[in-house]
Amino acid sequence: MQTKTNSVAVLDSKIEGLKIISAKMVTDNRGTVRELYRKSIYSNYLKIADFSWSQINLTRTNYGAVRGLHGENMSKLVTVAFGSAFGVYVDTRNSSKTRGKVVTVSLVPGVQVFVPEGVCNGFQALEDNTEYLYFFDNEWSSEISGVALSPLDDELKIKWPIPIDSNNRGQISLKDVNAPNFRELIRK
What we know:
Blueprint: E1 4-6, E2 9-12, E3 19-22, E4 25-28, E5 31-34, H1 39-46, E6 55-61, E7 66-72, E8 76-82, E9 85-91, E10 102-107, E11 111-115, E12 119-125, E13 130-136, E14 146-148, H2 174-177, H3 182-187
């Protein structure tokens, strides 16, 4: 097998500042190396002054389970390290011209999403033991400000690939079930 190399490709989405990124990969007989982040390249696309990652988390999530929708006051770069997921992003920023827009992305290893501060991020694992990787530009704490939305909000018109049972804590947390819907959020 010959070595195959691709370069970084970055696409805009219908949410202002939310970018869908195909990571650089090199594949040969031994396998594949994915470049998760290179400041000199990504800074051209993300337009964030003096940007660096402060925390990196990896979650392992069971088939059909949902995490989110959470929009903390931090930017994130998210991807799947193993498995696959249905990623959902909702713009909740008061000053954004794309407020209320929803974007969904099929996430597999090599596909990344840059989530700007204040945009809600959530996902549903499409395989058992899906590993979802988060790069944060700020350290997370329970006191960090931000918003949460119910992933079950009918008005967002999210078509989750696997039906969600709101009573199944192995599939969705009580915190996420009880989060406000978008209409309640904008009334605050």
